Amino acid sequence: MFPSSPNIRLTLLKINGVQDTIGNRKLTLISSKEVIGINFSVTSKEFYESKKTDIRIDVAVRIQSFLYDGSRNAMIDSKIYKIERTYISGQFIELYLVEAKIRIGDINGLVG
């Protein structure tokens, strides 16, 4: 496997959260889009900065910019991640992911 070749499959998720009459939050899947990207290591500077802000980046992925649809969540291997930060780098966009507290079963319309 070459270092810059696609090596990770992820699903971009658009999720809508609505509260019912008694205050329970219901999550509904608006759209999903499967893409292939390049998993890369977080640099030591980024790791240090994330520790200062108490945001631990779990996964960093690079995908083609035109594939990104503005989703705020992604699923990799049946785990839901929040897209904490994005960075455009030429024809690619870097997605910095933090494991979310929501699970697949919490989202109506999502099958893992």
What is the typical, i.e. mean, pLDDT?
87
| Total number of domains | 1
- Our measurement of the CA-to-CA distance between the termini, rounded to an integer number of angstroms, reads 27 Å
* Oligomerization category of the chains in this entry: single chain
CATH-assigned fold name: Thrombin, subunit H
Give me the count of strands: 7
Number of discrete helical segments = 1
Structural class: mainly beta
N-to-C order of helices and strands? EEHEEEEE
Query: Into which percentage range does the β-strand content fall?
Result: over 45%
Which residues form runs of ≥5 with pLDDT under 50? Answer: none
- Supply the CATH architecture: Beta Barrel
Shape: globular
Text of the CATH class: Mainly Beta
Helix share bin = under 10%
Explain the overall architecture.
This protein has 112 residues and is mainly beta. It has a single domain (8-105), classed as Beta Barrel (Thrombin, subunit H). The protein has 1 helix and 7 strands. The chain has one helix at residues 44-52; strands spanning 8-19, 25-40, 59-64, 73-76, 79-89, 92-99, 107-108. It has a 6-stranded antiparallel barrel with strand order 1-2-3-6-5-4. It is globular, with a radius of gyration of 15 Å. It starts with 7 loop residues before the first strand and ends with a strand.
